[in-house]
Write a structure and sequence with these properties.
mainly beta, nine-stranded antiparallel β-sheet, globular
Length: 132
Amino acid sequence: MSANKFVLKHHQIEIDYIIGASSALPALTYKDGTTVKTYSPVQITTEDTSLGSLVSIPLLSSIDAGGDRFGFFLPELDVAAGETKRFTTVGVNERFSGPDSFPQLPPSWGCIEMHGTAQSVIVPLVAKPVPA
């Protein structure tokens, strides 16, 4: 069974990603220290490559001033239900300028090694009610 739940870590960066989540639920949570951002499936870009799936998210985006994106490669892993498989991958951060940025700078990229776990889980179709 193909893994669909991934947890990736590098120092203060932690990513929790579930493939197949409903568009009404967060599919990816990005944490960097005290900063926490959540993304629905439509905010996540996934591209299949010969190296695995490249998953990317906008961290900071401005049409005029540029922004910051983060991406990571997910290998194709088969994991039996109830088991966890460990893997190592790479994360990539891109910073880019917009037309109103001063000074105009070329895009820059930085890479980090990430350690992760993969599982095959049942994905909920709706959010669980919060107990009162």
